[in-house]
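Recap for those who missed Tuesday's class. We walked through two folding examples back to back. For each one, the amino acid string is listed first and its predicted structure tokens come directly after. Nothing is annotated here on purpose, so try labeling regions yourself before you check the end of the notes.
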Amino acid sequence: MVANVVVTGASGFIGSHLTRELVAAGHHVRAMTRRPQAYAGAGDPVAGDVLDRESLTAALAGADAAYYLVHSLDSDDFEAKDTEGARNFTAAAAEQGLRRIVYLGGLGDDEEALSAHLRSRRQVERILHEGTVPVTSLRAAVVIGHGGISWEITRQLVDHLPAVVTPRWVLTRTQPIALPDVIRYLVGVLDVPEAAGQSYEIGGPEVMRYIDMLQRAARVRGRPLPNVTVPLLTPQLSAMWLALVTDVDMTTARNLVDSMTNEVVVNDDRIRTLLPGDLMGYEEAVRMAYAEMDDR
């Protein structure tokens, strides 16, 4: 079914790839951005900011569906901003009569003490589902693709360091997923009526520790990456370490480090039945991400 679709965060890592695939699938895409004059991606740029309630009226007018890909991870008060943005968007979507919102959030067990970042992702999901517009939520861990923040941390550690001294969170289990698989799921759920009102967990075919991600990426790059894990690196020191050896800013690094103590693996794979297909393995995804970086 061809739809009029709004993509928030269209110039971001996920949004820039999603808009291209939606256009390729025949949908009419509005790429929502705070700077439409600078937008050069797929779809028609439209001005909008989830923290500016009035700007959403024109951005969503006439739309059938919208993708919510917004977060404020680089801000010290990201939880408050994410909550405000979700409430504004939910109200505007209902006012404009949208038939579906698709949201990309984060994995994590609600029974655990989630980090502020993952807790905020879940809070945004709840706010969207409390509105009158049906929502489909996808929950993912690390997305492997050129330009993604979590992948960039992995890549830059591998490329910049001959060896690593790591904190205990590198032993936490995660289930990374390749960017093309995330996009396939995001596009696919739009055309599945029974996905409305549902939350799905998405992940790649392998569960691994963060240190496994680092060392296997190094192997793809053709180099060893010796590691010593020490128990004394606090979250603050870990964030300072990441900010020192990568180009991720200190605020984002701290918010991500806090989340790396939470295990993020798929416990419900219903999405595999809803949208069947082969999943890209971790090392293949790493090769793809490096190839895109080298091409650029």
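Example two. Treat it independently of the first, because the proteins are unrelated.
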Amino acid sequence: MAAYQQAIDAIGKASHGESIYASAGISIKLSALHARYCRAQYERVMSELYPRLLTLTLQARHYDIGINIDAEKADRLEISLDLLEKFCFEPQLAGWDGIGFVIQAYPKRCPYVIDEIIDLAQRSQHRLMIRLVKGADWDSEIKRAQIDGLEGYPVYSRKIYTDVSYLACAHKLLSVPNLIYPQFATHNAHTLATIYYMAGENYYPGQYEFQCLHGMGEGLYQQVVGSIAEGKLNRPCRIYAPVGSHQTLLTYLVRRLLENGANTSFVNQIADPNIPLDKLVADPVQQVLAAAETTGQLGLPRTQIPLPRALYGSNRLNAIGIDFTNEHHLAGTGVDPTDYPTLLSG
């Protein structure tokens, strides 16, 4: 909490009264503010975490800088949306457009989440800052679903589907400029170029922005932020930079290495001279359609990754778990998630 307060003060003083879209902002990781940030502790989250988040946001509003609620694991998505809704109807934040939210494109619920957020923006009369990312915790989301014995996976099993989802979600965000300020975080040249043309050539300040990780994608974004006269795209790019000690940033670094070190990562592939340019900038939609012609069905999951129930093949079925973050499952089982610790001890 203290570190975030110091950071907001530093960013706010350096902004020199610039607009929300022109000045630097901050992204808040809610699990860093509360050790019990989960559905099973819903009442504590609302009574203990929300006031801390509100305090930081009022501080950001004082300086008129944007503040984003960062995305975390899929099992925290619904409670984060509840916090966002409470936030948007907070009287002390009325009329302010610095409220932000980060959405990951690899969960299958992503397009529906965006629909919900657009509706929330309209109801609350806020223009929300929405940072769209592809997602960096794919491995752990797959493993968590297997351990919990869920019906399926919360994320796509093929990266190509995430790429398509990202573009579809980008289109949704760009379609409501009065309600959403889109922030597109990507290092993929094809994704960036598609969004550029999707948004149209008549750009105006505050329409949207790109984002990149500090120290990554610099060659790509050098072609983005320069002037038209220089042959560039003349679009803004915000640099997303994690701040902290070596110890606190180590897990972040590992996630980035896993994400960008994967064989399917654009950052990995662009450094490989053996990969032809046509493959690097291939249209993911066309790739999915081509795969459907081969398999005979659109959108088939990766066969090498069995569903959580079929994890052990023909030997035996995996145990069925209860998804304590799914309200429909909880309603069907009659389980109260606030009794989760009791259930474990029993």
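Answers for example two:
The chain is about 45% helix and 10% strand.
The first helix runs from residue 2 to 15.
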